[in-house]
Design a protein that fits this description.
Largest sheet: 8 strands, antiparallel, barrel
Strand content: over 45%
Helix content: 10-25%
Shape: elongated
Structural class: mainly beta
Strand order of the largest sheet: 2-3-4-5-6-7-8-9
Oligomer: single chain
Length: 251
């Protein structure tokens, strides 16, 4: 019995001696890798690009523009004139971005309430002849494309614009005539947005809006007037991005 135990011990030590040189030649960490392969692989966490995601925010700004009127029936003065408009606006926006390396594409809707207005007399010698324009609301739907450099995003945008414009006329009428003038036009702009945190960003933007000629009746004369408008807007805004710089798991 004792001889059998001794023989088994000798075999065990001989096997250990034979395996030890082989283990010594294996690369460092190989044994750990073998053990790791025997377990469930852990997920690899990958960040979503900073600018990818939906957002919403608010803005405020200042606007200046011109309204041009052509009316051959104006009897008090010239049949063509420009009227300057200026004032403040405030509103909100909602949109989404998709980032591909440094390229960012997106779409946005915004709505502004304004106090952008102007007025002038048609005939300076007649206090009962004049026209006033006031922008009540503005809206745009745009696509945009930009370049991202770290936390900064420079972009250009373009699309359609809508305006609700109140026009008041004192031309050749005993009482003012009010016209609710709703227009559709084009817009384009450029902006800079900066991520203050993973979810909050601030931006500055310039927009140009143009509403082409349209006929409106400003009095009891035979021919309607042709009026077109343009606006230059400077806006400052803040956005909250719902999933900026979040993470996803890859297996």
């Amino acid at each position: 019995m004792t001889i059998s135990i001794l023989r088994s011990a000798r075999c065990l030590f001989a096997c250990a001696a034979a395996v030890t040189p082989f283990l010594a030649t294996m690369p460092l960490g190989a044994t750990s890798a073998i053990a790791a392969d025997m377990t469930v692989k852990a997920p690899v966490v990958a960040p979503v690009p900073l600018w990818t995601g939906f957002y919403m925010g608010v803005h405020g700004g200042y606007g200046r523009g011109n309204s041009r009127l052509v009316d051959p029936d104006l009897t008090f003065a010239q049949d063509r004139f420009n009227m300057a408009t200026r004032g403040w606006l405030a509103g909100a926006q909602i949109g989404a971005n998709w980032q591909f390396d440094s390229l960012v594409v997106g779409a946005e809707l915004d709505l502004s309430w304004g106090d952008i207005k102007g007025s002038r007399p048609v005939d300076p010698a007649n206090i009962f002849s004049g026209i006033a324009v006031s922008y009540q609301a503005l809206a745009t739907g745009t696509g945009r494309i930009g370049y991202a450099a770290g936390n900064a995003l420079v972009y250009v945008k373009g699309g359609v614009a809508w305006a609700n414009i109140a026009v008041q006329s004192f031309v050749g009428t005993p009482a003012p005539i009010d016209v609710n003038h709703q227009r559709t036009g084009l817009t384009g702009g450029i902006g800079l947005e900066y991520a203050l945190t993973n979810n909050i960003s601030a931006r500055a933007e310039y927009d140009y809006l143009y509403f082409g000629p349209a006929s409106i009746a400003l009095g009891t004369r035979r021919s309607p007037s042709s009026v077109d408008h343009d606006l230059h807007l400077v806006k400052l805004g803040v956005n909250y991005r719902f999933n900026g710089d979040t993470v996803v798991a890859r297996y």
